[in-house]
Design brief:
By secondary structure, the protein is an all-alpha fold. The chain contains 8 helices and no strands. Helix 4 (about 50-65) runs antiparallel to helix 5 and helix 5 (about 70-85) runs antiparallel to helix 7. It is globular and about 55 Å long. The two termini are about 20 Å apart. About 25% of the residues are buried. The mean pLDDT is about 90.
């Protein structure tokens, strides 16, 4: 049942990402709304059903955004691999750890995008526009991550109570 909820939520985020955010390109600067969701799943939810959700979400995001196939899947899988056990090793407050991992995931995504673009064009270039996009994404990650953490935590804990009768998915 959690799998179905995760898929529905990721499709909702992908729909917002691919339909509403392109209307404001300078404001959001291609900020990936699935990164906070993938980070939340990676850090605070059990691993049951998480990998298929991340793979399906990455494939859908790649197909619907028109990007190079596999870039989003690679970003989300790398986020999962890098930060799966972060709560074991780092004892920050959950919202602070969430914020740090989102910022690092935004950087990982931009590095993967730069590598793919470099392979496609056979050139390595960095412009001020690229830097401004990265800065805008990091600023959005800083501003939105505490709010997104509390929203996702409230939402999924409420869903856990509905599904399992008060038992948490991961303690």
């Amino acid at each position: 049942m959690h799998f179905l909820v995760y898929i529905i939520f990721s499709v909702l985020l992908i729909s917002i990402q691919t339909t509403l955010l392109p209307a404001f390109p300078r404001l959001f600067a291609q900020y990936d709304l699935l990164i906070p969701f993938v980070v939340y799943l990676t850090l605070f939810r059990s691993s049951i059903g998480m990998l298929p959700v991340i793979l399906i979400s990455g494939c859908l995001m790649g197909l619907l955004s028109g990007g190079t196939f596999g870039v989003y899947v690679a970003t989300y899988i790398l986020t999962l691999i890098c930060f799966r056990n972060a709560t074991v090793y780092f004892h920050f407050k959950n919202s602070i750890l969430f914020q740090i991992v989102i910022i690092l995931s935004v950087l990982i995504e931009n590095i993967i995008f730069a590598i793919v673009i470099s392979f496609q064009t056979l050139t390595v270039k960095f412009s001020l526009y690229d830097g401004s996009i990265l800065v805008t994404q990091v600023i959005w990650a800083l501003i939105s991550s505490p709010l997104v953490y509390f929203m996702l935590d409230y939402l999924f804990n409420g869903i856990d109570k509905l599904i399992t009768g008060g038992l948490r998915e991961r303690g």
